Structures are given as C-alpha cells and as structure tokens.
Amino acid sequence: MARYLLTRAWQSALTLLLSTIVVFVGVRALPGDPALALAGEDRSPEALEAIRRHYGLDQPLPVQFAQYVERMAQGDFGVSIRTGTPVSSMLTTALPVTVELSVLAILIAAALGVGAGVLAAVRRGRPAEWLANGLALIGLSVPHFWLGLLAILYLSVATGLFPASGFVPILEDPVDNLHHIVLPAVILGTGLAAIIMRQTRSAMLDSLSSDYVRTAKAKGLRPRAVITRHALRNSLIVVVTVVGLQLGGLISGAVVTEQIFGLPGFGKMTIDAVFQRDYPVIQAVVLLTAAAYIVINFFVDLLYSVIDPRIRVTGDPA
Amino acid sequence: MTTASAPVLEIRDLSVSFPTETGTVSAVDGVSLDLAAGEIVGMVGESGCGKSVTAMSLAGLLPSSARVTGSVRLDGTQLVGARESALRRVRGREIAYIFQEPMTSLNPVLTVGRQIGEVLQVHERMSRRAARARAVELLTLVGIPSAAQRVDNYPHQLSGGMRQRVMIAMAVACGPKVLVADEPTTALDVTVQAGILQVLRDLRDRLGTSVLIITHDLGVIADIADRVVVMYAGRVVERAPVDDLFAHPRHRYTAGLLSASPQPGRHAGTDRLTEIPGLVPVLASQPDACTFADRCPAADEQCRAAAPPLEDVGGTDHVAACWHPCITAPTAAQEANR
C-alpha cells in the first residue's frame, strides 16, 4: 500500500508540474507585451526596460519559469492588474466559499443520488422507481441556472425562506453561513444527484441479480444487510467513479451558481478576471483548478482501493 | 445409506411455475422426495429440467413472481407459503446452500472470514470477534491450510477449489440439517472436484447433515450419492439407490443419460457416445402425457395419451415413471459393460 501511495503521489506531482508548464507557456503565448500594458502612459524604452527588469521579463524563459515556480511555492501568485491586491489574498477569501459550496453540493448529491438509486433498484417496476427516474430526468435536463432563478423567485423572494444572495463566512456565524449556502448547494448538486442516481440504480440492479447476493439471501440475512453490505458496497465503485468524473462539471457549475446567488467565490472571481483581462488572476485560477483536479483524482484512486480490495496493490503475500 | 427414521426433509407434490410475457412456464411439476438424516441424495438431469428451481424453491429463494405449490416440510415445519421472516431463520441455519460458481458466489469486497462470520452473527447471535474465531475453525474443518491467515483473505486471493471450500464452510457454519449443493463441482477441475466431494462426505459423516446434491454429472453421483433422483422436464422420472440405478436403469431417459456419459473401457476405439436426440421441452403447462415421448425410442400412443405414474419397478425403493420401462440392461453398450 505504501508503495502504491508513493507511486500515485509521484505521478500527481509530475502532472502538476506539467500543468504548471502549460499554464506558464500559455500565458506567455498570449498576444501583447505585458510591459506595454503595465507601462500605462509612459512608454519610453527606459521605462519599459525598467518594468521588464522589475518583473524579471528580461530573463530567459527557463529562468522565468524557475522564478515563477519558486514564487508560487511561497504562495505568491502575483498582484491583480486591476485591483492591485495580491492574488493570494483574493484566493484566501474566495476559495473557502467555493470549497464549501462544492463539498456541500457533492454531499447533498451523493446522499440524494445514492438513496434514490438504491430505492429505484430495490423497488423496481413500482411507483418509487418511476418517481426516482422522473426526478432524475428533470435533474438532468433542467439547466441549473434556471433552477437557481426559480429557487430565488419562489424560495427567497416570494417566501423569504432563504436569502436570495450574499455570503457569511462560516467562522463568523455557522448557522447563517449554512442558511446562505444551502440553497445554492442544492441547486448545484441537482444535476450530479441525477447522474449519481442513474448510475447507482444500474449498478445496484447488476449487484442485486448477482450470485453473491443470492448467497447472501441463502444465508438468511435481512434484506437491509443484503442491500447495504452486499449489493451497495459493490456498487459504490461506480458511484465514486462518476463523482470523480463529474467534478469538472461541478466546478464550472459552481462558477454559474456563484454568479446567480452572488456568492463571492472562486467562480465569481474567475468571471470577473476574464472580463477584465486580469492575467495573474486567470493564471492562478487555472493552475489551482488543475491542482484541484489532480488532488481529487488522487483521492478518488485511494477511495477505490478502500472500497474494492481487488484494486489494492499490496506488498504482503496473498 | 437407508434409514427407517422419519425424513428430515419431506417434499410432496412440489410444483413451480413462472408467469412470462408469452404465458406461464411450468418449471417443476409434482416433485416428491424424502431426505433422511445423514443421507446424500443426488438429483440429476439435463440443463433446464428443473433441478435448480426445485433446489431454490425449498427455502423460498425463487423470485417473488414464481408460483410454488405443494409441500416442503423440514422436520415437520411447512416451508411452502411460510412467512419471509420464518424462512429467513431457516435459511443458512437449517437449510444451507452451496452454489456452482465459487468465483461469483462469494462477495468480492468482503474477507472470507467476514462472510462466514456473517451467518454466525445472524443466526447464533455471535459477536464479530467470536464469529471470526469460529470461521477459522470452520476453514480448518473444510481442509483449508493455515486457516488463521486465510480467514482475512479476499475471495480473489484464493483458488477455485479453496473458494468452494469457503462456500462449504459458510454453509455448514450453523450445522444445518440439510445442505443443498447446486452443481458444487461443475466449475472445478477433476482433481479439485474429488477433494470437494470428499469434504462433503466427511461433513455428512461428522455432522450428520443430509445432502441434496444437484448435478448433471453422473460421475459425481456415482462417487457420492446414496440415492439418485432423475428429473426430466420438471418431473421426477426415476428414483433408486445409486447402485441399482446404474446397474438397472428403468426409465428410457435414465438409460439414455447413462449411455451418453463416457465410462472407462466402454467407448474405446471407434465407438461413439450415444446422445439423446432433441432437447428438453420448455413447457407452457405440464401435458397429460410422457414429456419424454418425443425423444424416446419406445414411445407409442399410450405415452402420448397419459402421463405415466411413478411406480415400483422392482428392487428396493426403485420407482420409475415409464409405460415401457427397460426390463433388463437397456443398451448393448451397457450390456457389454457388465
């Protein structure tokens, strides 16, 4: 197991380095001279030269890259061109919002999706399955920005059950924080819940008709034990895979959801940065997103081996 | 082994049918069978003749769409139509099953110790710790070396024969009265097969468990069974002590089965195995006729007009459902063999 972990960690690090190079080169490949953009009114060659020296732009690319990596390792992502605030401090306020939103959305989606999927499989051909399938179809086909708008209209504006927008940091007031974020999280989670439900349902149908479930029944186990301990545990691998694959959609979904609910998160920061051509911010955002993918994939792989012993790469003899 | 005592398992007129889109399919029709304590009964027949459905119906393991009628009594307790909760107490504790595919019949994500222990936790209310300790004993009982280590293995870490031994350990964990082994050796190679049959025999001798072994392999039957039940198209067509059946098959189907299986010295040289022409019919309903008539060399009008009853055909406890039972040895090949 330790060797497996080490290999996976090494692979992750390599992938991260590669994405850093891609981001670095990508930004440099953009048309336009950053020195020119930074110079403003004073475009004398001396001023431009000074700017280039100041930002290290006169150095060869590999040196620039080394400096870039070194600064990032120290948590220095540069300064926003538009606001002049350090990108790192922008991230420290925006990231927790998005992380909380995404984690909550995943939890809600997993709970709803797995629950409904198991129910649909166990109650096959009965009203419960039709209901679950119908809801999943709605969850998949209704765009969640529209769902978000509906939710704001009916649950916030009309009834005042939830605040329509805004955010309170969790450390300030946990209850109020949850109150603000639960609705966006549910909206963000609906699509994922629908996908998880459908995958869980088909995986459960497979497991429920398997030989080991027949064995479990023949042992005299209660239906609950047969379903959870035997059928569901074997279906979870599919669920984990789906969640892992869908996280990309979740991140882009978070961008839209944050915009709708006015949450000051990563997504909102990204959109603002794109509209304002704020390159240091975009660069940091792209890199962090890539890093998030890599870390999540690492954990998904770890989860696999926890769920399915056949995937475990053990050093000890069988 | 024949015993005069009351049978442990008493099957009377058991019928099973399934509704399908094209109408009802009759899978088992009026099967009756007794299983005495410590007796090993073999149930033999082609694929699709209703062996497995019979086996699964004993403890109510068929899908809920199956219509089961008749009577299955385990030590006098009626199981057909019993409540699900009552059946759950019987399953694994009084009637235990071993299935054909040891690879897929064990849960891939649980250790074998856990899977054996589960039965004990449910039926004997053992703690997880005690159940694990008992699982080690059971693994030793079924002949798994270094059981204390193996108990923490996952099924994929064991060989096919080992896995089937695990299945057996799981089945006998609570000392069931009846062990139903549905093709327990079919997926295994011959040497492993012999080992598994030996384990079953040992358990019968040590624990006094009655065994119903279902197979299409006459070699397995000859090796282990005390009595044989031959099934065809959902009906019992012949029932006899094992030696009697092999020496004097009375039903034409049994005779056909025997001459279709290779025996040392019999089919040497250019001799071919004799096959039974045609297939087992899929029956919408059980006709009042011999279901084997279409494939039978001796069939006449009587066979197509009325179903033959199971009747005494001489010998001890030897019955067959045939209007024209074989009087002596049925085929030249078998004649030559004797």
TrEMBL record, chain A:
<dbReference type="InterPro" id="IPR045621">
    <property type="entry name" value="BPD_transp_1_N"/>
</dbReference>
<dbReference type="Pfam" id="PF00528">
    <property type="entry name" value="BPD_transp_1"/>
</dbReference>
<dbReference type="InterPro" id="IPR035906">
    <property type="entry name" value="MetI-like_sf"/>
</dbReference>
<feature type="transmembrane region" description="Helical">
    <location>
        <begin position="101"/>
        <end position="122"/>
    </location>
</feature>
<keyword id="KW-1133">Transmembrane helix</keyword>
<feature type="transmembrane region" description="Helical">
    <location>
        <begin position="177"/>
        <end position="197"/>
    </location>
</feature>
<feature type="domain" description="ABC transmembrane type-1">
    <location>
        <begin position="95"/>
        <end position="300"/>
    </location>
</feature>
<comment type="similarity">
    <text>Belongs to the binding-protein-dependent transport system permease family.</text>
</comment>
<feature type="transmembrane region" description="Helical">
    <location>
        <begin position="281"/>
        <end position="304"/>
    </location>
</feature>
<keyword id="KW-0812">Transmembrane</keyword>
<keyword id="KW-0813">Transport</keyword>
<keyword id="KW-1003">Cell membrane</keyword>
<keyword id="KW-0472">Membrane</keyword>
<feature type="transmembrane region" description="Helical">
    <location>
        <begin position="236"/>
        <end position="261"/>
    </location>
</feature>
<dbReference type="InterPro" id="IPR000515">
    <property type="entry name" value="MetI-like"/>
</dbReference>
<protein>
    <submittedName>
        <fullName>Glutathione transport system permease protein Gs iC</fullName>
    </submittedName>
</protein>
<dbReference type="Pfam" id="PF19300">
    <property type="entry name" value="BPD_transp_1_N"/>
</dbReference>
<dbReference type="GO" id="GO:0005886">
    <property type="term" value="C:plasma membrane"/>
</dbReference>
<dbReference type="GO" id="GO:0071916">
    <property type="term" value="F:dipeptide transmembrane transporter activity"/>
</dbReference>
<feature type="transmembrane region" description="Helical">
    <location>
        <begin position="134"/>
        <end position="157"/>
    </location>
</feature>
From TrEMBL, chain B:
<keyword id="KW-0547">Nucleotide-binding</keyword>
<dbReference type="GO" id="GO:0005524">
    <property type="term" value="F:ATP binding"/>
</dbReference>
<dbReference type="GO" id="GO:0005886">
    <property type="term" value="C:plasma membrane"/>
</dbReference>
<dbReference type="InterPro" id="IPR003439">
    <property type="entry name" value="ABC_transporter-like_ATP-bd"/>
</dbReference>
<dbReference type="GO" id="GO:0015833">
    <property type="term" value="P:peptide transport"/>
</dbReference>
<keyword id="KW-0472">Membrane</keyword>
<dbReference type="InterPro" id="IPR027417">
    <property type="entry name" value="P-loop_NTPase"/>
</dbReference>
<keyword id="KW-1003">Cell membrane</keyword>
<feature type="domain" description="ABC transporter">
    <location>
        <begin position="9"/>
        <end position="258"/>
    </location>
</feature>
<comment type="similarity">
    <text>Belongs to the ABC transporter superfamily.</text>
</comment>
<keyword id="KW-0067">ATP-binding</keyword>
<keyword id="KW-0813">Transport</keyword>
<dbReference type="InterPro" id="IPR017871">
    <property type="entry name" value="ABC_transporter-like_CS"/>
</dbReference>
<dbReference type="Pfam" id="PF08352">
    <property type="entry name" value="oligo_HPY"/>
</dbReference>
<dbReference type="InterPro" id="IPR003593">
    <property type="entry name" value="AAA+_ATPase"/>
</dbReference>
<dbReference type="InterPro" id="IPR050388">
    <property type="entry name" value="ABC_Ni/Peptide_Import"/>
</dbReference>
<protein>
    <submittedName>
        <fullName>Peptide/nickel transport system ATP-binding protein</fullName>
    </submittedName>
</protein>
<dbReference type="Pfam" id="PF00005">
    <property type="entry name" value="ABC_tran"/>
</dbReference>
<dbReference type="InterPro" id="IPR013563">
    <property type="entry name" value="Oligopep_ABC_C"/>
</dbReference>
<dbReference type="GO" id="GO:0016887">
    <property type="term" value="F:ATP hydrolysis activity"/>
</dbReference>
